[in-house]
Amino acid sequence: VVLEQKKFHPTDIGEVVNRFLTQYFNAYVDYHFTAKLEDSLDDVSRGEKPWLTVLRDFWQPFQSQINEIKETVNRNDVISEDLNEACPSCGKQLIIRLSKRGRFI
Question: What is the CA 100 to chain-centroid distance, rounded?
Fold first, then answer.
């Protein structure tokens, strides 16, 4: 993010990361997931739950999802976004892509 006039604004990379996480890891960026995990960690701190069980319950499905995404998601799917507009020259669909220098059409 960048700070502009006392407000945080996402960078191009930040927008891509946000879109990626909400599309492929939605369960893990959900408010209820975070609240439930915090409750479990509180249980661990009070000695009511074993930490290894909490870690395993989180890690095993998370690792499976990572492995699935590695196999099915293409890098171009993450760094490009349809513009829903036709190219004035050739008529093909315009796409916004992200490069090292920023976004471009």
Answer: 19
